[in-house]
Amino acid sequence: ASGEAGTAGGGQAIVWRNVVLMGLLHLGAVYALSLVPRAQILTLLWAYFCFLMTALGVTAGAHRLWSHRSYKAKLPLRIFLAAANSMAFQNDIYEWSRDHRVHHKYSETDADPHNARRGFFFSHIGWLFVRKHRDVIEKGRKLDFTDLLDDPVVRFQRKYYKSSVVLMCFVIPTFVPWYLWGESLWNAYFLASILRYTISLNVTWLVNSAAHMYGNRPYDKYINPRQNTLVTLGAIGEGFHNYHHTFPFDYSASELGLKFNPTTWFIDFMFWLGLVTDRKQAPKEMIQARKERTGDGSA
Asked: 122: which residues sit within 8 A by CB, 6+ positions away?
């Protein structure tokens, strides 16, 4: 993006195009709320279904599969997750995973793309309003991302990303309610596309902001990420953030069997169907030992 005409507190150029577009998007979402009483119930259910698809494209796809390689997925599932990720419109899989690996490697430093030490606003949305800090770029170049581009699904999505976003994030969510049950294009667009997209963005951003600031730290009290139940509910299982940053290789991103974690349920169901293999988990003994050594005693 271009068009910066100022600098933020950290000396990073403000990307005014992003500021304006995000402002308009959120205004559109607020307007969309007024359309809810006038919409058909099927349209609202469809918008929620699209939200779940969007969320899985981020949580099960870009995050747990491609960023952390916490499990292996066969080609049909990778294609599904890539399509769902395009519905999320949060940068392509390669860029999302690249930034996320840098976030874990250099968490809460200037090399962290959404460094929570710079405050809630910056870690939530402000980081998208400025050029990346030079440390993010320089230290990011030192990490190996060849595994991402070795995946033909990642390469294909990256090559056709803009077209896939138009189709998955806007056209299909709008077209289905209009074509199948006669919803107005206006309602379908603002509810299943604009409102759904805006909510999904903010749910993801809350993992970067709220889950790095509010909650307990039963696994490692020396890091910022927290266990945040509200974020977990919105981000379908991604709010157990103290656990995740302590055991980032664990495909469940939480202690199995104890937490509300729809993303883990989805991965387990795909395992049952034979589309997932090699789910990595932290052994119970390792978890307990870490709790006793560095936890805050809250669990």
From this structure: 114, 115, 116
